[in-house]
Structure formats: structure tokens, C-alpha cells
Amino acid sequence: MTVKIQLLPEETTFEAESGETILEAALRQGVGLPYGCRNGQCGSCAGHLVSGWIQYPSGLITALEGKKAGTCLTCQAVPTSDLVLEIVQRRAPAEIEVRTLPCRLERKEQLNHDVVRLMLKLPEQQRLQFLAGQYVELSLKDGRTRAFSIANAPQDDAFLELHIRQIAGGEVTQHIFDALQERSILRIRGPLGDFYLREDSQRPIIMVGGGTGFAPLKAMIEQAVAIGLQRPIHLYWGVRSRRDLYLPELPSQWSEQLPNFAFTPVLSEPDADWTGRTGWVHEAVLQDKPQLGGHEVYTAGPPAMIEAAEAAFLAQGLDREHLLSDAFTFSSKPAVDANGGG
After folding, report:
1. Were both Cys, which of 73, 99, 232, 256 would link to 260 (CB 3.0–4.6 Å)?
2. For 155-160, what is the mean pLDDT?
3. Residue 139, Cα to own-chain centre: how many angstroms?
4. Is this prediction's pTM over 0.90?
């Protein structure tokens, strides 16, 4: 049985499948409900049930104790009829609590010659709410900390996916590549940053990534898939050579899931047999779209790429308010960097 859930005061509507909690249904469809522990203990997900019927798991001891009648814990409540629920959605970084949580390195996977993927498992009793495109600060056992973009969409909040490039002289990235073992306990702090997918805009989207700047853009595209975004999305990914590309199956998957998705890889030092686009990635964008007014542009990658792209895009009519950037910086020092630090 499928039921309809209406949220007030914004009048957002979505559906829940049989046996699915309100929060599970909301996350699956990209609706930003508040939450924390996801086990009915913290009360962060509470809303007011205006009408309809819900069920809780038997024997649940929850944060409902002492709260007024009509309080609904969306992480535990399974709707058994159509519902109207009064609850404030979280759509901007300032509305989401920054938290520090332990995590376990569940999987470490080499994606290409100098990029690894870390899959971080959060505690069963804790979850990190975030917006697609934000980042976390990752701390090693010895306290060294760097910031890395979250590469997965918020729907998959049991894990955090990070893409980390090996940086020459980078103490933290070198340790991650050479010494960090699966099952290691780490610490994260987040979510952080104002780089996130603006879901309420109607403008066509251009995404420009350099290197592991692909990571936050991947999260945004997965979010677009989850919410059924119909706006055109064109992803340009700039790297040096073909071996720097990774996860090659994803763009074709996204093309099947999003009716208006396009992907253009651009190589600055192309292989001899490369027949695709070459040069600087932002120049490829301008060749295809000389008039950028009316677009929304997301750029993520090294500062030099960001600076060149911003100057060129603004000169071609892009409004500053519709240019969103996430510049990765690299350091061999044990300090917190912007996303992708060494």
C-alpha cells in the first residue's frame, strides 16, 4: 500500500511504501526532514501529526516521553493512512547541526593510479544529515585533520564516501594511501560548506569538475536522480590524461536515470589515441555554451581551475549569484584545509 504524506507549512507532498518509515520515504525522495540518531531516542526528527494514522515498533522506548500529544517521530513512525504532518524542512547549511562523530573505515578501494575511495561507516545509533555537495573534516587517530567532500547523496547516510587523491608531500594523504587500514576508527566533523545543490532553481545546470572535484558533483547528480530533477545537467570533467578518469560506468548510468543529462570529459594532456575534447575544461564549456546567462554553474577542483573558470564565465554573462564554487587546496602541513587537502 502506498500512502501520501503532506508536510506543512510548505505543502511538500511525497509518498511512502508499505512498511516504510516517514523518514525513510523522505530521504529516498530527497525531502530534507530533520533527524539525528534514526532510532527514536534523540527526538531530532519530531513533527506534529495533524491528521492520519501511524504505527511504531512494539516495545519502542522513545523520546516521545514528556512530549505533547500528536508528536510524531518520523524515523520510527510507519504511516498506515494518508498523513498531514507539521514539520520544518532543512534546506540550507545553517539549518543543519554540525556534529562530531566516530566512524569506521569499512572499505578502502583504489579507483585509479592516485585516487582512493574511503567508505566510512557511521555508528548504528548516529547519522550525519547533510546536503549534496557539502564536506566533512576527517581526523586521523593522531589528530591530523583534513577536509574532504562527501561523494554520496544524503539518501545513503549509513556510509560517507570520500574520494582522496594522493598528493606529493601530503602527510595525511600519504598516510591514507600507505598505512590506513580497513576497520580503522576515525573521526569526522560536519557537514560543512555552502556548496550544495540548489533544488528550488529552474535554471539549466552546468557542472565543472577538476580531478577529485568530481566527488561533490557526483553527490549532487545522485541527489538529482533521487528527487527526479528534470532540469538539464551537463557535467564537464577536466583531468590530465585518460588514466585520471575513474568510475567510468557512472555517466552512462546517469544518462539513463536523468533524461537531460550530458557528460563531457576533457583532457589537458591527452593520450595519443584520445578522440574526445582536449584543453582546459572551462574553455570546453565556453565553446559549447558561449552565452551563460540563465544558467546555474557549479565548479569544484583546484583553485587555479576555479579562478580561471569564474573569470571566464562571468565575462560571458553568468550572474555571480548563480556561480557556486568549491576550491580544493592542498597542504603538506597537519592543518585543516579546504576540501581535498593533503
Report:
1. 232
2. 84
3. 19
4. no
Fold (CATH) for 94-192: Elongation Factor Tu (Ef-tu); domain 3 (2.40.30)
From 220, 221, 228, 207, select the one nearest 296 (Cα to Cα). Answer: 207
Kindly state the cell numbers that stand for 160: 560517507
Does position 63 have pLDDT exceeding 60, yes or no? no
Boundaries of every domain in the chain? 3-89, 94-192, 205-327
Instruction: State the burial class of residue 196 (Cβ atoms within 10 Å of its Cβ: 0-12, 13-18, 19+).
Output: buried
Q: Supply φ then ψ for residue 10, to 5 degrees.
A: -85, -10
- Spatial separation of the C-alpha atoms in residues 207 and 69, rounded to whole Å: 46
146 burial type by CB count under 10 A (0-12 exposed, 13-18 middle, 19+ buried): buried
Class of domain 3-89: alpha beta
CA distance 44 to 74: 9
Q: Per-residue pLDDT tens for 245-296?
A: 999 999 999 999 999 999 999 999 999 999 999 999 999 999 999 889 999 9
Can you read off the three cell numbers belonging to residue 147? 577536509
For 133, which DSSP code? Answer: T
314: closest CA among 301, 327, 295, 328? 295
- Once rounded to an integer, what is the mean pLDDT over residues 83-101? 88
Residue pair 342/332 in contact by the 8 Å Cβ criterion: yes
**Grid coordinates in use for 230?**
528534470
CB contact set of 169 (below 8 Å; sequence gap of 6+)? 332, 342
Which pLDDT does position 342 carry in this prediction? 45
Strands (E), 111-202: 115-121, 135-139, 145-149, 159-165, 185-192
Closest among 282, 324, 288 to 305, alpha carbons compared: 282
